[in-house]
Amino acid sequence: MLAVSHGRDRDSFMRIYDHFMPRVCLYLRGMGSTPANADELAQEALLRLWQRADRYDPARGSLTTWVYRIARNLHIDRVRREPRWLDIDLEPEEGVLDEDVVEHEQLRQSIEQLSAVQARLIRMCYFESKTHQEISEELDMPLGTVKSHLRRAFQKLQSEVRGKS
Amino acid sequence: MTRHHLDASTIVGYAAGSLPIELAVVTATHLESCGHCRRQVEDAERIGGVLMEQQQPEPVDAAHLQGLRHSMLERLAEPLPPSATSIGGDDAPSKAFDPDRLPAALQPWFGATYSELKWKWMAPGVHCIRAKDTRTLFLLKIAPGRSMPVHGHGRSEITQILRGSYSDALGHFAPGDVADLDSDIQHQPVTSPGLACICVSALDAPLRFEGWLARKLQPIFQL
To answer: Do residues B137 and B25 lie in contact, with contact meaning Cβ atoms separated by under 8 Å?
Structure first.
């Protein structure tokens, strides 16, 4: 990514594009976009990555997190048509993320080790854009139980993220 | 200093983009003043990023993919737009502190400043402003030293204190604090002496009042 942010290297960018484009499309389709809209939004998300590459700071988070944020924000802006609640530039108050490839891999493994119910709820929340109440109704699970599963899953994953900081 | 923070399940919902809009607006209001919760959101976004990357893309039509790729290459040749201020929007809030300005997340719903708010009487000592286009996002102004009726919550309530303060069985809530409440919590906020308590609240189901009078008045208040 540094070759893109510092040198505007198109070949390097297209390697990033080839990796992320199908994943962003799949994510956006899960969130409710039609295949055509998902293609269009994913193109726009990756074009934004190119256009704003000079702002990329690896110390502030991984490229994956940045792509995720752009795609999610575009979904909220264009599909939910709620453009005003995620567009505030919120900077962390203390420290930096210091996210590296090793931590990324450890987080990936921790996600795979979640219990089946926690993994399902996390997936419904992140990939199906379901509110806690919708999850509760769909799984016939009390709202408090949905929240406590999500809370525990997050804390488990977060301890992996934070354990290295 | 913030003493009451967002629940982890709210953090996850916000980072996933799956909170109902009313709850998301109050969450965003809290995040503007709470570095601790902003870091939690960043952690939850990292989880979202890893989840997105973990997906195994399905095989797609190679010609279609090639068309998209070609289109992207053409767009890379276009001149870059002027530097934007933030991802998803170009109107980041001013960093200069103005005590009359509402938090940026509330401005699209209630206007820019406290002094321009048009409060409506709701009950003795209680004024309210409902956000346009929604019935479950509202500002409340409660006179000092008032007891609110005992109530529970149908589902979730998130309240961010903007000015003044209140206390209930959960503790003391001052500016910057958020009460992120579940359906199993019943409470009776009592505002502190001195300043009126101004807060922004979002519900995703009507409140459940304990007293018969509050229950009778609930359809009028529409809470």
So the answer is: yes
Q: Tell me which amino acid residue B28 is.
A: A
φ, ψ (nearest 5 deg) of residue B35: -65, -35
Please report which helix (H) or strand (E) contains residue B8, including its range.
helix B8-16
* DSSP code of residue B155: S
Q: Does B78 touch chain A (CB under 8 A)?
A: no
Instruction: For residues B175-201, give the mean pLDDT.
Output: 91
CA–CA separation, B63 and B66 (whole Å)? 5
Backbone angles phi, psi at A98, to 5 degrees: 50, 50
DSSP summary character for residue B200: E
Cβ-defined contact of B92 to A93 (cutoff 8 Å): no
Residue B47: both structure tokens together:
């989880």
Cβ-defined contact of A94 to B76 (cutoff 8 Å): no
For A129, the 3-state DSSP assignment is coil
- B182 CB neighbours in chain A (<8 A) are 143-144, 147
Rounded Cα distance, B9 and A121, in Å: 11
The DSSP letter of residue B209 is E
Q: Is the pTM of this model over 0.90?
A: no
CB contact under 8 A, A64 and B31: no
Query: How far, in Å, CA of A96 to CA of A115, rounded?
Result: 30
Residue A149 burial by Cβ neighbours in a 10 Å radius (0-12, 13-18, 19+): buried
Residues in chain B: 223
At A40-64, the pLDDT tens digits run 999 999 999 998 888 877 776 788 8
Tokens of B77: 């040749």
CA-CA distance, A138 to A59, in Å (whole number)? Answer: 39
Optimal mutation site among A16, A51, A84, interface B, most CBs of chain B within 10 A? A84
